[in-house]
Amino acid sequence: MTIQGFGYIALALILVLGSAFPLGAYMARIFEGKMRFLAPVEGGIYRMCGIDPARQMGWMSYAIALLMLSVVHFGLLYAILRLQYYLPFNPQHIAGMAPMLAFNTAASFTTNTNWQAYSPESQISNGAQMFGLAVHMFISAAAGIAVAAALMRAFVSGGLKTLGNVYVDITRVTLYVLVPIAVVATILLLASGVPMTFDAFANIHTLTGGAQTIARGPVALQEAIKELGTNGGGFFNANSAHPFENPTALTNLLEIWLLLVIGFALPIAFGRMIGRKREGIALFAAMALILGFAMVGDYAAEAANNPILVHAGIMAQPGNMVGKEMRFGIVQSTTFNTAATGTSTGAVNSVTDSYTPLGGLIPMFLMQLDEVAPGGVGSGLYGIVLFALLAVFVAGLMVGRTPEYLGKKIQSKEIKLAMLAVLIQTMCILAGAGFSLLTKSGLGSLDNAGPHGLSEMLYAWTSATENNGSAFAGLSANTPLLDYGLGLAMLFGRFAVLIPVLAIAGSLALKPKLPQSSGTFPTDGPLFVGLLIGVIIILGGLQFMPADTLGPLAEHYLMLKGSVF
Amino acid sequence: MLREIRPAFSLVLFFTIILGVALPAAFTGFAQAVFPFQANGSLLKVDGKPIGSALIGQNFTGPDWFTPRPSALTGTDAKGKTIPTPYDASESGGSSSGPTNAGMVSNVKARIAAYLKAYGPGPVPDDAVTTSGSGLDPDISLENALRQAPAVAAARKLPAARVTALVEQLADHRLLGVIGTNHVNVLKLNLVLSGMTAP
What we know:
The complex is a heterodimer.
Chain A: H1 3-31, H2 39-49, H3 59-83, H4 99-110, H5 120-123, H6 126-154, H7 166-192, E1 202-205, E2 211-214, H8 220-228, H9 249-273, H10 277-303, H11 307-312, H12 331-342, H13 357-368, H14 379-399, E3 404-405, E4 408-409, H15 412-438, H16 440-444, H17 451-465, H18 480-510, H19 526-541, H20 545-561
Helix pairs in contact in A: 1-9, 1-10, 3-4, 3-6, 3-18, 4-18, 6-7, 6-8, 6-18, 7-8, 7-9, 8-9, 9-10, 9-12, 10-12, 10-13, 10-19, 12-13, 13-17, 13-20, 14-15, 14-19, 15-17, 15-18, 17-18, 17-20
Chain B: H1 5-34, H2 36-39, E1 43-46, E2 49-53, E3 74-76, E4 82-84, H3 102-119, H4 126-129, E5 139-141, H5 142-155, H6 160-170, E6 183-185, H7 186-194
Antiparallel strand pairs in B: 1-2, 3-4, 5-6
Helix pairs in contact in B: 5-6, 6-7
């Protein structure tokens, strides 16, 4: 570990946290409908699509409309993947995708997961990347933010029957936030060397007289929205480790910023919407503390290097370079991968499978905490509000008062729904990984023996259920068991959380807004931040202790002993 | 439920056309006009013919070239057997071996022995014996390049000081002391090297 390493983590966090404040203020104005400089464009879209922007939706209509959008988009993507051979922009003449892989991929991109069981260079055409996958990166991100906006509105005042209009929310988030930031980021990436071409792969005669085929395509735009929308689906198999996706240390820093900025802006927007900025800052602080610790921890684990290799004769410094790129070294790799797993981005700029056991455990643990540090765009905010409800409930139990959060009474209905959302994810991960390891097919997918094999399977189910998409790349995921199983886990992980969240929002919106009294437990100070982090770690993380102990922790001690498998 | 069908279909189609076709097409046009070199893959040309990409590594072997990092990429030969295809940029990826993977450890041990044999006793930089994340890493660490320089100079009958100076000259350094790493692009290094003649 070096001072420069800590300096880099501090720099990345300062850039993100600093810009989250103005962006959050801007987003609050969008959710309130006060940001209207693109009103003519909006109006045109609403007319063309038969949307009545004045229509206000209750939680049920909001959820149904969102499901309908997802079903339609799922169907369209499935069709595009199956038929890509016949569609335009396919210079490599890539064949249509097989049904089970197309199902898995469509589920993956509809749910903002971006799990990639396919190898992009040989299995996806440029066209399918552009109008299949990249469009989902915008829309599934906007849908997540729309649900967060609906939940925020539930706390604004009392006696509300409606939460807004989902079509308007998605359109505005896309037009005012995602497209402008993505456009600027695309230009920066282009200037730094990320390709944008419709030409076929380049065939090269190398310096030594050999031949090299270089995959390329319209990468830059997809790269920008892939990070900004916390999607993560790489244009190339190596994802952001590929020099064409992430050519320099500066693009790496830009991508880290894109990954995190909306996630941290949303609690700020929340505080502004409810007129109590400190409440937003408390959630923001909890997110930042968890992520900061994770970044430092992951850097420490990787900088400590693999003692087996050091014993074999490599230099102890700079650290474990297996699966990492030279232009990023240690700290710029670990910071990227923790940022990606703290959000719900499946992007990686280094192979997590090859990290040291603790270096791999930290990204997995961030996902197991239901991704609230700061979480995916939208899903992070509604995730941490669920934990805040559970935290005030726990505090209420301790002092024997009916818990309140932001002036709304929290009663058994909300707590049951919040627990449902948390437990469904845990069940999917543990039952899914456990079941897979009981089958021959599941065991056959593992690339590593010993405890690392368990880590691979556990990581896959965690990543799918939490809609992350990051992978311990060694797992052979394109098997019937994992294509269908993980596909279903992604759908459960998305909609079995999103619908309870909207139900909670609907129920809270109706309740009267109580004035603060001397008996109100303050939720805007360090005490609450500490309690919230405790609840996140205990409720979100503790359930995974046994599995994490048998996988990464066991491997860590075996590695120190010098065991190999 | 039925009333949501039309808006859902139209919105998805609208965004597919705008964000999935119009926007990438506009950006491709823009990129080809403003950043033609980067947009097509940063291809380096010698006598008008592309010889590689400034961003993608190439497989150099033998004592008279600087050697890149090991690449974990594999392909299949005509008989369907898995064979190593280092730096085949029609694909990408790392080895995905975990830290206690016996195969990985023995590979690294073999590479350490080969490195010491080629460049003499001394420290073995991590990047020289470990596979990268992309399998296409264009760079090696500055330490690694400086360790290789005397042997490469000897094989090409060049003064060691000249080759070492070339490495120093082409090296990228950390920005502001924090961003990036100290490294050298192997293809650019070898490209200049191939034009050097003995004094």
